[in-house]
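Notebook entry, structure prediction.
Reason for the run: the old model in the group folder had no record of what sequence produced it. Starting over properly, with the input documented here first.
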Amino acid sequence: MNDTILNSFYPIEAKNNHDMSNSQIAYCLAMFDVGVNVGLLFCIAFSEFVDKNRKNVTLLSGMVTGISLFLFGITYVIQNKALYVVATFSVRLVNGLMSSCTWAAGWVLISSLSNDDSTANTLTTLAITATFIGHFSAPFFGTILYVNFGYSLPFFVIGLLQFSISVILLIYMMPRPNTAKDKNDEYSRPDNLLSYLLHPLLIGHTWVIFESAMLIGFFEATISLYLNTFSLSISRISLIISFSTVIVIFLSLISVYLNSKHFVKTNLLGQLLFFIAMFLYSFSFMHTKPFALVMAISGYYVHSISKVFHSGPSSLVLKNILVCIFGKAAKTWANATALTFNSLMYFSGRLFGISVVAGLLVKVLAYESIVYILIGVSFLTYCSECFVFYKLTKSTYK
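New structure, fully documented this time:
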């Protein structure tokens, strides 16, 4: 929740009280994604270190994350604009960096809890679902706290929760029982890892994750501005976006079983829905306002549904790709690495969608042209995912 708790009120506060420009506000929000990417790269490169020291990593990163949220909550007292910008950027960067380490250590723990594939898939899906719900519900709770208690309380509440949970995890995070582990399933990084980075399955699904997150970032950055062209009030636009959040949360809860048992098919369905969403969205450019508004909202809601069926099982598909490449002996490593790498590509794609597609391309191309380009990209990505699906079901790569 700590990455999106501020989305609904921070931009207004920063613009009105500290005279920050729209680009400065966007870059401040993006600093979290930058920190996450740096942290996840570290966790992937030193995965064995994170595994062996996951208690200390969880405690330290969780506490620092909580403290950084507290600090962000008091940055409003800084009157100097330059100092305020440096302070918010720095705290946001540290927040993302430490959050990624907390997630990585937690995913290593989840990966080590069970050797049974079905149970491991269910635990992974539950973890992703919880992350999903926190990510999309945080702005709602942040708004309530902000409106009733002021700017600082949302950060203080989430910071205290983060700090407390880190201590609780330290107390109850028991070592992996050796009796529950197979000798061939030790958490060890496979040899010649770099030589497999160009594996077609890995490249194909990595692009799928990146492109899907890019679309998510694009929609997050532009949907409210586009709906505003239909002369809708801010309250109505907020209601439309909030309802999409309800859809995501509800479907995330009821799709846990489907995503854990049929993750390859649901992942493929999610990618197809991404393409359909962009196609519906483009119809809003071709018709008069009443029908165009319906098409825009329909495309946005289909896009919200697609996030559930793609983002949820995506790491499970990636895990099976790694197992196909390195064998079942690397199963535990594959599960933890898949969760970490999936998040790395998600935040990279989301950052690209916000900063490059929605931030830079809109200055060069018309909004409609960008959407048409993304339709073509979505179709090619769906074809790429079909290739991954075919190879996994045929078990060509052992």
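Summary: Confidence is low (pLDDT under 50) at residues 174-185.
The old model has been moved to the deprecated folder.
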